[in-house]
Amino acid sequence: MHAGYDDGPEYSPDGKWIYFNSNRAGGWDIWRMPAGGAGPEDARAERVTSDEGEDWFPHVSPDGKKIVFLTFSKGTPDHPANKVVALRMMEAPGAHGKRVNMKIQELMKVFGGQGTINVNSWAPDSKSFAYVTYELLPE
Fold it and tell me: Which domains are seen in the chain, by residue range?
């Protein structure tokens, strides 16, 4: 078994993979494993993102080609509310039968965090997705 915390599991649309976020490698990254499990010593678990940000809530588009996720700034220990966060997107691993260009695109920065994109909110045609942003009212 790995050392770390896993959260936010979600099946890929074809049911072959489970995507999740984990801090098993130090910072928070997006991972995936076969739907049947990662196997002994988590040998079949694959790290999908690995950069300076803290990545959470991976959601694969219905066509299986893209992943949208939320990124907190480096060192954010969890997924708190009331933070400036980035909505990011990348090509899904295996979308073309192998891991190819895994370039991550930052779509926008928003004020949010916890609750911004916790659940899959892709449109059925994979052309758009919903998210939540908000502002704090003065007390």
Answer: 6-112 (2.120.10.30)
